[in-house]
Design goal:
Largest sheet: 9 strands, mixed
Number of helices: 20
Strand content: 5-15%
Structural class: alpha/beta
Radius of gyration: 21 Å
Helix content: 40-55%
Strand order of the largest sheet: 6-5-4-3-2-1-7-8-9
CATH superfamily of the largest domain: Aldolase class I
CATH class of the largest domain: Alpha Beta
CATH architecture of the largest domain: Alpha-Beta Barrel
Shape: globular
Distance between the termini: 48 Å
Length: 446
């Protein structure tokens, strides 16, 4: 199966229960943002700029758990910001597990190894020595880490432990050059890979999430999936990059770039995702084949943003994860007060001009799961896809040149400055395969 059986049954029973009760709208996944502080400034992400006045504000754990209980979504995606910066992340994970939630920790990977080291210290005994020697041999921990782990913790508080109900959901937007360009920092891709390898050795489940932009090459996306498969990553979500307001404003003000040069139009999304159904057969891509058909341009879907609500420091964000027309005190209040028929694209016509180019996962994948625009055979198609065997580990991925060069300076920010000085236009426009010497020259020029 693509998804563990107990988790699949939990989600299925949740849907069936609401259908039997006649619920018109209900939550499938809670996007929980306990804070908006982040240690990266990713191109295309407007979240921390949108909430720039409240970067130091955080939701108390009690409010986070109350939000999960209020909407009763079977799955909670802890995002942000960078959730591993949240000082009570361990307590939050423990509380959500006590509620029986499926948990995704959406992280850029930078602090993952630190959190896993804390877990190892909390459970250390001699039976861990073979795995610790493996981690040390593969340079995933160092001698200082080893001493810390062997010492153990005098106070065994909450830690993020491996569980069949928990996934590390690591942000990976391409291979080394492209990913580090988008996150605007060198070395992040290498840290992501190290964290993924360490997690799999210890026994965690790991997923990845990828956003595809105009500059993302289709061949590179496929190579990325193959490489991640060779690392035994458990599954992937993928979504097109959409020019929502906060991201557009950040791109223009901070980077001095035109949003239309970076984000995808609806037509371009269909071109980029033309092979997604084949990718779904080759790799463990989470979601529904119905959503994949939508991305490939084979059918239309109605947006169901209400099924993946967002709760953050200001309240329940509406109408969706990316667009903000207001915040509400309660989930039911949001469901009742938002005019959902004002949003999305119907028969090729955008109800709201801001929705014109949106085909993102959080709006449309639940439509495929809930049969919002059901066609004959959709239910069987979804069952066969999710209950069928997982695609085998990719042997091709072992030959992928994943570490294909570093980006100049601070990614798109560096290139923007270089463009303004007309000094390294060629170096800033180069894609995968860039040579270290050329990159160094570009960095100096930027």
């Amino acid at each position: 199966m693509r998804f563990p059986l107990p988790l699949t049954l939990k989600i299925a029973s949740h849907i069936i229960g609401h259908r039997l009760r006649g619920s018109a709208k209900f939550a499938m996944v809670l996007q929980l943002e306990p804070l908006h502080t982040c240690n990266l400034t990713c191109t295309g992400c407007g979240r921390i700029r949108e909430y720039s006045t409240s970067l130091k504000d955080m939701m108390p754990v009690e409010d986070c758990l109350e939000a999960a209980d209020e909407c009763n979504a079977p799955m909670v995606s802890i995002c942000g910001g960078e959730p591993l910066i949240y000082p009570e992340i361990e307590s939050l994970v423990t509380g959500l597990r006590a509620q029986g939630r499926i948990i995704y920790i959406c992280t850029n990977g930078i602090f993952m190894r630190r959190k896993m080291r804390d877990y190892l210290a909390s459970v250390y005994d001699e039976c861990w020595e073979p795995k610790l020697r493996t981690l040390l041999h593969q340079s995933l921990i160092d001698e200082k880490d080893l001493a810390f782990i062997r010492k153990g913790k005098s106070s065994r508080g909450d830690v993020i432990a491996p569980s069949s109900w928990l996934y590390w959901n690591v942000h990976v937007d391409g291979l080394e050059y492209t990913h580090d360009l988008i996150v605007e920092r060198e070395g992040v891709f290498r840290e992501c890979v190290a964290a993924i390898r360490m997690a799999k050795i210890i026994g965690y489940q790991v997923a990845t999430n990828t956003t595809v932009y105009r500059e993302s090459e289709v061949e590179e996306i496929e190579n990325m999936f193959a490489y991640l498969s060779s690392l035994d990553v458990d599954g992937h979500t993928i979504s097109p990059g959409y020019d929502y307001d906060a991201a557009k404003q950040d791109m223009m003000k901070r980077l001095g770039k035109r949003p239309e040069d970076f984000f995808l139009t609806r037509e371009m999304t269909r071109e980029k995702f033309a092979d997604i159904e084949r990718w779904g057969r080759q790799f463990t891509i989470f979601g529904t084949p119905v959503y994949q058909e939508f991305l490939a341009g084979k059918r239309e879907l109605t947006c169901s943003a209400w099924a993946i609500p967002t709760r953050n420091i200001r309240g329940w964000k509406a109408p969706c994860y990316l667009m903000t027309d207001g915040h509400y005190d309660g989930y039911q209040e949001m469901l009742e007060k938002v005019d959902w028929d004002r949003y999305g694209v119907v028969d090729g016509v955008a109800r709201d001009p801001r929705c014109e180019n949106c085909m993102v996962h959080c709006g449309y994948d639940p439509s495929g799961a809930l049969g919002v625009d059901a066609q004959f055979g959709d239910t069987w198609k979804n069952i066969r896809y999710n209950f069928g065997p997982r695609p085998p580990r990719s042997l091709v991925g072992e030959r992928v040149n994943a570490f294909n060069g570093i980006s100049a300076g601070k990614g798109h920010l560096a290139c923007s400055r270089a463009d303004q000085t007309h000094s390294v236009n060629q170096g800033c426009s180069e894609k995968s395969g860039v040579r270290m010497a050329e990159t160094a020259a570009s960095s100096e020029a930027c």
